[in-house]
Amino acid sequence: MGHKLLEVKDLMVDYRTDLETIHAVNGVGFGLDQGETLGLVGETGAGKTTTALAIMRLLPERTGRIVQGDILLNGASVIEGTEKALQRLRGETMAMIFQTPMTSLNPIVSIGNQIAESILLHNTQGRSEGEIQQRVDEVLNMVGIPPARKKEFPHQFSGGMRQRVVIAIALACEPDLLIADEPTTALDVTIQAQVLLKIRDLRDRLGTALIMITHDLGIVAQTCDNVAVMYAGELVETGTARDIFTSATHHPYTRGLFDSIPRLNQKVRRLRPIPGLMPDPTDLPIGCFFSPRCPQARPVCREERPPVFSSGSQRIKCHLFGDQEGFAQAGP
Amino acid sequence: MGDGPLVQTVGLKKYFKTGRELLHAVDDINLSIAPGKTLGVVGESGCGKSTLGRTILRLIEPTSGQIYFDGEDITGFRKDRIKKIRSNMQIIFQDPYSSLNPRMSVVEIIAEYMIVNKTWPSKAQAWAQAAKLMDLVGLARRCANMYPHELDGGRRQRIGVARALSLNPRFIVCDEPVSALDVSIQAQILNLLMDLQEEMGLTYLFITHDLSVVRHISDEIMVMYLGQCVERSNPDALFERPLHPYTRALLSAIPEPDIGMRDKAIEVLKGEVTSPISPPPGCRFAPRCGQARERCVASDILTVEADPGHHVACAVFEGAGRAGRQGHPQRE
Amino acid sequence: MATNLTASGTEAGPGEPVAFKKQNNAKEIWRRFRKNRNAMVGLVLFAIVFLGCFVAPMFIPYSAVTKQNIRNKFASPSLAHVAGTDHFGRDELSRLLYGGRTTMAIGIVAAAMSLLVGGSLGMFAAYYDKLDNPIMRFIDILASIPPILMALAIVSALGTNLQNVVLAIATARMPAFCRVIRAAVLSVADQEYIEAARAGGTGDLRILAKHVLPNCLGTIIVQTTMNMSLLMLAAASLSFIGMGVQPPAPEWGAMLSEAREYMRQTTMLMILPGIGIVMVTTQLNLIGDGLRDAFDPRLKN
């Protein structure tokens, strides 16, 4: 092996318009092994989707810019790749599932043909027409749609079924890496359960590495091996799912996130929300980005960028852990 | 008037015409909410929960059945009298983006109802009152002259709350007020709604698809499926001992933010939510139910009180509980 | 991403003094419009032509337009006659300016009429379900007649004078206004803020005036600008075939038609009003395009 499947190094992405520069991602770094599942958690505007788009090199051309950092897929840089090489990578090595199944399918092409097209685009094995159709049937069976329905069009399917079609297209070429951007947010709970189960099942069967982008801590707890919590374009805390959900020490933002959600199994009269709002991505605070909302902020938090401290699998970007027992500085 | 329920419906029905057939959006709903209490209505998209809320407010005309407000039958009220009861019954919308007129400033939006209803002799007084409402819901007064698009989702939802409060209502339909918000903001708004209820003695009909939110805020919960109420109970009984198979499936489908629950058995429902167009007699959940028997599709299921205060409409319990036509719901 | 998120999340305390003021987003639209080079060129040129045609005639007596001097016909440009003279020896520049005034006035008034009638019909059709079918079927009937044919029919029935020309082309253009504004109102009418207004007891007229129309303003302005050029063209066409403004009154289309007979003697007389028509319609289209982009929220940021 030697190298990881995906390595993101100190990634910074800006969106530039004539009016302002939005600092969407500010130094994100993580690695992903073959078959591993990483949960990328955060609220709207945390930069989750931007990170995913940067990995796929699908940032809006006019405004989005990778300012710094590198993305290595199987050891080769995605950033330096030509558009032609990228087209090969997308679909064959990595694929993405978007949030709205309603808009990510072409309404006038039958779903069978949409799946066949993605196979045809990456037809390295030189499959014949018949073999491609056979593969389409296989893929449909895999996501639990009867192949008899492949002549039907997207509007004849319900939301959950459409999301399965999207998954089928993404998995048709058996990519090594699948990025799922809020794949179930637009779906009902019972349908969400079906789709999540399908994703987990296929991941285990095909050994696909998965980046699960979500704002729902429940989904993370149920599906991910490792978790990365994003805030204002950085990773404030990373660790194994077990550590994130059981450890007593957390980044103040992670703790706030946990306190904000009403639980099913315990009744609290008042929730403890994080005060305030996400910082303005065009004008980020000096020091720690979370300091204006942090209940434990010290003077140093408002002046200096926090370093990363680690203990076990947990890596926390916060000044508070400098003198905490068991934590050692692990990076800037 | 007096100690009776503030809001009550008896056999409330709303059918929509779709071509030649009828869509049973709300079918025979009986509910009653005591003053100062919250009834949570849960269900998936298309179960008729939003239609129910709007029908009670007479924003949609009911097909049959009665709506009582403070002991008075408001079902037959004409336009001018509806206008009067509107100041007692208000609504908070789900989408803080489309529910605010983009061409009006914050203070104009909040003062609009008071100006329309001539609550105050002059516009200046209405605006001054709007400013007080902004204090009440925690909106900084410097936002008064801003336009909705300049504000984030949480602040926008506070505008919606302030607007709903502007006529001093006693009853508010909250139609998924936190579904479009991030978790940390969601907690802020939930706390705000609960504080306002305590201070002003408000009565809520809280519509949501999020079970953890509904448990947190409700005094009683009603589970809806395809236009009908399948189970109604206090939150603790409902979550600890759900009776209806649909409620059970719904509860088990929620991914919980608890790593220990990772391998809990999920009752994944088969199939999709259909739409209640000219439904056949019997239980509407039967096609997806694992325990469906012949009885379930033979004729309509009666609602019974399986435990004190715990009503369920399922063939399994039909003989068991204190029988009774769904007629008049008991009050605790 | 586009909203202004402030770093200090904690809201300031109650009671801070606040001055309520009405600000408008016209400034923002103007800012975006100004950045569109084509639209700005269109606007500046149109302003020049417009001012020329509406201000200059104040200093030129109308007699200059009608005073014939057969001996001096087809004169080349000179100090006395900057653009030369026509086949009756009348000053061509005066005629061009007066003619442009007529053409533009017809376009603007007709657009306003068309907007008022067609727009209101479209608005009521969209807002009141029950009116939709009757109004729109009536509009379909109107639209099934080719506009220029309908305008011709109206003018021949009522007689050729300025008012009737305006009436004719405005009627012919009405279906277009009606449909566009109906579509705009429909898209606004199912927004939740309309339902919110209703929930507060707001009456239909106030809903239309305060909540629906302001949100269709962009479409209305753009539609009107774009159609103004079409209406000016229609006015010129009618005059060109002799069914519009009658001689000796100058109008670009009529001037073009008259000059056609003397094409062999001098082409100048044809080219000048032709250029006028082309310029004004092109400028209005450029402005309309610019306005559409400036109003389009998708181009914000």
Q: What portion of residues of chain C is helical?
A: 55-70%
Largest beta sheet of chain B, briefly? 8 strands, mixed
Outline the biggest β-sheet of chain C.
none
> Total number of β-strand segments of chain B?
12
Uncertain residue segments of chain C: 1-15
Top CATH class of chain C? Mainly Alpha
CATH superfamily label of chain C: MetI-like
Describe the global form of chain C: elongated
- What is the N-to-C succession of helices and strands of chain C? HHHHHHHHHHH
Strand content of chain C: under 5%
Q: What is the residue-averaged pLDDT of chain B? A: 86
Number of helices of chain B: 10
Structural class of chain B: alpha/beta
Please report the distance between the alpha carbons of the first and last residues of chain B: 17 Å
Mean pLDDT of chain C: 84
Low-confidence parts of chain B, pLDDT < 50 over ≥5 residues? Answer: 323-332
- How many structural domains can be distinguished in the coordinates of chain C? 1
Structural class of chain C: mainly alpha
User: What do we call the CATH topology of chain C?
Assistant: MetI-like fold
What does this structure look like?
The complex is a heterotrimer of chains A (332), B (332) and C (301). Chain A has nine helices and 13 strands. Chain A has 332 residues and is α/β, with parallel strands linked by helices. Chain A has a domain at 254-331. In chain A, helix 3 (111-121) packs across helix 4, helix 3 (111-121) packs parallel to helix 5 (159-171) and helix 4 (129-143) crosses helix 5. The two termini of chain A are 28 Å apart. Chain B is of the alpha/beta class and 332 residues long. Chain B contains ten helices and twelve strands. Chain B has helices at residues 49-56, 79-86, 106-116, 123-137, 153-165, 183-200, 211-217, 235-240, 245-253, 294-298; strands spanning 7-18, 21-33, 38-42, 64-69, 72-73, 89-92, 171-175, 203-208, 220-225, 228-233, 304-307, 310-312. In chain B, strands 6-7-8-3-9-10-12-11 form an eight-stranded mixed β-sheet, sandwiched between helices. A four-stranded antiparallel β-sheet of chain B has the order 2-1-4-5. In chain B, strand 9 and strand 10 (228-233) form a beta hairpin. Chain C has eleven helices and no strands. Chain C has helices at residues 26-34, 37-55, 63-66, 92-127, 129-143, 147-158, 162-189, 192-199, 204-240, 252-260, 268-295. Mean pLDDT of chain C is 84; it is low at 1-15. Classes of the chains: A alpha/beta (332), B alpha/beta (332), C mainly alpha (301). Chains in contact: A-B, A-C, B-C. Chain A binds chain B through residues 43-44, 158, 160-161, 188-194, 196-197, 215-223, 241-242, 245-246, 256-265, 267-268, 270-275, 277-278, and chain B through 44-45, 152-154, 182-188, 190-191, 194, 209, 211-213, 215-216, 236, 239, 249-259, 261-262, 266, 268-269, 272-273.
